[in-house]
Amino acid sequence: MSVRRMTEDSAPSGSNGGGKLDAETGSSNSGLLDLSIELSSPQVFSGSKFALYLHIKNPFSKPIWIRKVTTNLPSAVHSVEDEAQTQENEGARVAAAQNYLNEAMDRLIRIERRLGELDSQPVSDEREKEAERLKASAHDINARLSASRDLLLTQQGYGIVTLANKAHVRIENARLRNYAWYVNDQAMLHVEDMLALDDVVALRGSLPMDVALQAGSSNVWTITLSTKKNPFFLPAAYRLNITVLYSFDPPSDQVEQATSRIHSNVAPATVNIRSSLWSVMGGSVCGGLLGATARLLQQIGSTAGSHDASSILSPLLLAAVLSIAASIFAARKSETQSFVSVEDFWGGALVGFLIGYSGTAAFESLTRISR
């Protein structure tokens, strides 16, 4: 992993070696922070969690307030905290909506029951007034239920939302081709595509937002990231841009004025994510079985006579075992000089096919182990 800090007043600089990568220290007069980034593990594999740490040091002679620390995420990487928080918020929202719906339906049932009782009573002014009041309450409940519905669009297409009693519609995580067409009290929405939920996520700091970072002090901001457990994951170097917003004035409860001075520092970082060993082993097994099958079919076509089950299963089992061993050897032994690169599922499949088709000769050539 490498990182460097880029600002308006300083040119980009390379990263130093080692596990911790420091950004170039800027001038105090330019409003630059001392930023450094490190990972929880020197090697990151697909499907596993890893933490990214941003060290912020205040180089100024006066305190600063960190307003926000965010980073962009590529589509293959997601935030573990953000995903858990989203699921928690979604569960709470669904539970609250369900409770509200149950209470509203109970009130409607009680109103209907009371209206039935009033119908059996003699006509009087009090009965008419109570009936009108109950009908107005039932109408108000139905209107609130109609106005409180959420429109959930999970893919491209069209959606209809009904508006009542000046209801407000809030649209999140979607890009609309045309905002809305209104027909009476309905609105048709055309969603062009969905925005990624994890496009920009926030890092968490150990220092509360309303507490100043004193001169010469440092603080660590953390985010836990991961990738999906995809056996076909391709190794890649992902670029992250961590943005730090801070000010020399304490945050105010009032809306920030246009004259408020919010400073920004950006720390680019590159995270190399490799395919998991299980993905490489799975590819080697598939390739080994495929290569051994091709070899058996060639032998069966060229020789006459019957073949029993043991003569077929033994080469397949041997190819699978040798393929796994060769893929682990090639993937873990960095100094191995091989004519194939075993970095992902397809590299393991290629090694497995060569061993399955060529037999022990290919295994000895790849691992440089001779009997």
From TrEMBL:
The keyword Transmembrane applies. The keyword Membrane applies. The chain crosses the membrane at residues 277-297, 309-330, 345-363. Residues 94-121 form a coiled coil. Keywords: Coiled coil, Membrane, Transmembrane, Transmembrane helix. Residues 1-27 are annotated as: Disordered. This is Uncharacterized protein. It comes from Actinoplanes regularis.
